[in-house]
Request: fold
Amino acid sequence: MKKHAPATLRNREAIAAVLQEVLPPTGVVLEIASGSGEHALYFAEQFPDLDWQPSDPDREAIASILAYKAEYEGLNLRIPLLLDASAPDSWEVRSADAILCCNMIHIAPFAVAEGLFEGAAQTLSGQEAPLIIYGPFFERGVDAAPSNLTFDEGLQARDPRWGIRQLNNIDAVAAKHGMNRMARYEMPANNLLLVYCPD
Reply:
């Protein structure tokens, strides 16, 4: 029942190091598209003063998260929610002190990214509450890594609605929903970690 995503073991420490800088000291972190649940388990362990709320739109992912949660002795990892990022009006979480979304935007239609920002604008608890996004992006004026170009071609071959997004388009969606990009961190394997906050 447990799923394993190899990338989570490779990137979790690097992501956690940045989260240490940008997450609030206490409160609720809503994780969107938690996938296997390995990140949720690891980050809950790393940040014991935060309540970690995993979620995913896929029932098999929910089952995997529950399997990992069963092994966790801490009290700050919540029961995962079935949540569709593209339908923010249906989100069960009405308030969060931070939202984290890893490796989702490029493997979903663009409407999912739009829903993520709309939901974040409705859910985040204040101006300093961050939406944190991790994954590959293309940037104007920055040469794309060959591996990202190949990855993008493969994604679009699987589904033409998928693909690595242009960062300026993501910033525009953020602005549409009253959010601004506050930070950009270069991460291993040609990924970025981006931090958005409400105006």
Q: What stands out?
A: Strands lie at 27-32, 50-56, 81-82, 98-102, 131-135, 137-138, 165-166, 179-187, 191-198. The radius of gyration is 16 Å. DSSP finds six helices and nine strands in the chain. Residues 27 and 50 are 5 Å apart (CA to CA).
